[in-house]
Amino acid sequence: MRFNSLSYFAFLAFLLVLVTLWNGPRSRRMALLAASYLFYATWSSPFLLLLLTSSVFNHGWGRILRRHPTAPVLWAGILANVGFLASFKYTHAFAHLLLAETQGELTGVLIPIGISFYTFQAISYLIDVYRGYEEQPNLVEFLLYMAFWPYILSGPICRLPEMLPQFRELSRPSREDLLIGVRRIFSGLFMKIVLADTLAQGIRAGEGVTAGFDQASTGWGAVDVWFLAFGFGFQMFFDFAGYSHVAIGSARLFGIRLRENFNDPYLSRTPSEFWTRWHMSLSSWIRDYLFFPLAFLGSGLSWRSCALIISMIAFGVWHGAGATFFVWGLYQGLLLTAHRLLQSHERRWFPYLHLPSWLKDSLSWSLTFLFISLGWLLFRSNSLSQALAMFRTLLSPQAYTITTMEFDFYLLVSLAVVGYFAYIATRNLLNHLQSQPLAGKLVWLLSPVYWATVILWVLIWSEETSPFVYVQF
Fold first, then answer.
1. How far is 80 from 67, CA to CA, in rounded Å?
2. Catalytic residue annotation
């Protein structure tokens, strides 16, 4: 049952009526839990038992950890979860790698969908208990926390302290909840169906980002590679941010607020700022439960840099066991480390460099945008050798005279990039104008036209659509 399917809307409507009619938080919790298991079963029914097993184990281990809050007990729980995750996600990937070496074939092996997300939620719960989190969920509350359908497939990665009070106080959704929920859902569907899928497939089928990465490695010009980097970065943003909008909107229909996952990441002026705006739930998880504990094990800039690189490698490998994800994580760690090093020595290295703030911000933004975009080549490439071939192309002056992609592709990526920044500028302007009485009334009158247009585009484009990208992780 995809977020971008009619069956999902029927599921939402039926559940909303049911939850509205039933009285009491306990009944509504049971309804949401049953609905979450039903939703998960439509995706991965063979692995529903694994989700239940992980949930029951971590609930029980949390009780043990409360009675014996020691590091060995905590580490036993963490290693059990990591082993559970690795046995399915990474053993499968290594088996593929080994069979590729022997020209064998792997069939019938499936990865439990959402396992990366609900395992990280379980680990965060155990660490929070060890750190002194006092509220103890009952079994139903914890099962719902682990399986809640808006975030079970691809996040946002939530934490029990922010979800438990909401699960305990479930009430009928307000009119504001319903309105915001519907808006977030259609905003997300527009980003996915109209923007992300069009970038992936192209204006004409076979002329988009996917086809660009799948063509022969000898066929790229440097301009092609740059546009593929920009195009995939925005495809990924529209797809995953779109998913997050639908997830957050779906939960909001029931009066539940999930943490935000994106905050205009391409406005970032530094790599550090980018990672506080992109996939915020996972970035903050890595920061709070991996980087900070590692950083406190030592002292000095060198050790913190090592902790940062290790954390970003973990960030990359979380997406998969492929070499491209490992190198992408390493690249991001080195990029963040280089930025911190530059910050710490800026006055010493550039004592006489006094630039106007607008120029400095523009340069900082431009460099951040380019380096982050280069990183997407590592993330998306079909193999590490393909990524290296693309980087070699970028470093070859002669390659800048070669173009192999269709003009429609360059036009599409340009429209996506320019349109994104034009939308942000327009949105900020309208938010400013709303404080003016006359302009605010005009914005209010135009709002139905805007949303009607969004819904119409979603309906027109929804005939052929693909699964959300992050479901595979």
1. 19
2. 319
